[in-house]
Amino acid sequence: MAFLSDIEIAQNCKLKPITEIATAAGVDEKYIEQYGKYKAKIDLDLLNDNSKQNGKLVLVTAITPTPAGEGKTTTTIGLADGMRKIGQNVAVALREPSLGPVFGVKGGAAGGGYAQVVPMEDINLHFTGDFHAIGAANNLLAAMLDNHIQQGNTLGIDVKRITWKRCVDMNDRQLRNIVNGLGGKANGVPREDGFDITVASEIMAVLCLSNSITDLKERLSRIIVAYNYSGQPVTCGELKAAGALTALLKDAIKPNLVQTLEGTPAFVHGGPFANIAHGCNSVMATKLALKMADYAITEAGFGADLGAEKFLDIKCRMAGLTPSAVVVVATVRALKMHGGLAKTELAGEDIGALEKGIPNLLRHVSNIKNVYKLPCVVAVNRFPTDTDNEIDFIIKKCRELGVNTVLSTVWADGGNGGIELAKEVIRLCNEEKGDFTFAYTLEESIEQKIESLVTKVYGGSGITITPAAKKQIAELEALGFGNVPICVAKTQYSFSDDPTKLGAPENFTVTIKNVKVSAGAGFVVVLTGDILTMPGLPKVPAAEKIDVDASGKITGLF
Fold this sequence. Notes:
This protein is α/β, with parallel strands linked by helices. 35% of the residues lie in helices and 20% in strands. It contains 18 helices and 25 strands. The protein is globular and about 70 Å long. The model has no long low-confidence stretch (mean pLDDT 94).
């Protein structure tokens, strides 16, 4: 039997007009701005409509990722479709994919198999232009910063202490470190510079955490772009750039409405990476989903130590959100990789490898239950090679933590494969009450907050801070940034900062190499290990397989 690729499944789907999806979501026509037949932006005024009571928020997260795959976004979509199958009013809130991974190695972020959001080609490529607008705003600020220096530098900016980088939404290692301003006085002041990928930019974080255009402009104004010769921060507001940046972002800030393969409304908006940014879709998209549905299903990037931690400690704290339940996605294959098996060795039953790898799942589950104190269910994304013995082993181990395990087959069966998971999530939302707690308090020092995460969530024994990072922490606390959340940038492949430490490592320390403030976003960024803010392409990038025919039909996109 030949299996269809994700794009073939999506292209075979008969999409409903977006106006019909909006009606199903309860969105009045006056709030819809159509982008063709199957995409729309939603006017922010809808958030001020107080006639609807908010629904329940469900977070989907996962174990530490492996090359075997986990299927978090696919599970999120399939769970929503499963809820709809049993008569529930539900909406999805997801991130937009970055072009970097789309043309690189990881793939898109529109789900897979029979649990996708569509039109998948549009969503995975330019969509409604949000990321282009974010990149333009980011680079306008960079241009205005360098122009200020060129035109006399009345703010006394120290060229050696510029913190603002340009960005592009592509994996391009060549741009990590550059020298610009060459060619003589008329072409600017020569200096070292570099690029971040757009999804790691502070503008992306600002857009995703803003509650309104006014809030967006205020956050943009607070962005620190450099320090002056006295060591004081220089902001976007002082460069008089906030208004122009907001003008570029006035449409990008509006959430996008699309649909799943089965016609469930999906708000897809924003896309910060979870290993180097806060990893969640926009606050406004989540709030719209909550307002328009009884259940809002959202996901956060990578494993629960990254995406879920930042969703809970940063996004929920800033936006006043409280999840009713959390789904932790796992696969037998991935857990066996955490137990030491190679990707080529996963097909056969191996309880021994599963036993070595399952502590990874159990630590994530324990964190959700015991650190954040939220109701939790494990969704095992089942593959044909998984045996009943392996599934029973996972069910038994999770039951010891007081957590149920539900099999999910949404990749192959769509919403029908998510019905049992939907029933358990509904039960958790309505029968089990959480006592939502953050992993750290804002009153803790920056160093204490980092240590709290490492010891409580990662399972490490402590932290090592380089002398440069210690100085940065002291400077930030002196400037008044000691009482904000922290956003840890670390490898997604391990609880530790070493990607080779699989499973649930213990007795490790995390090395803090660099600490900087994202004053507009409202958090301090902590860089660990060898994390990069501009990825590179692999030896064989996915871009080599992507093509388009004379009719405009795209092939090779997953």
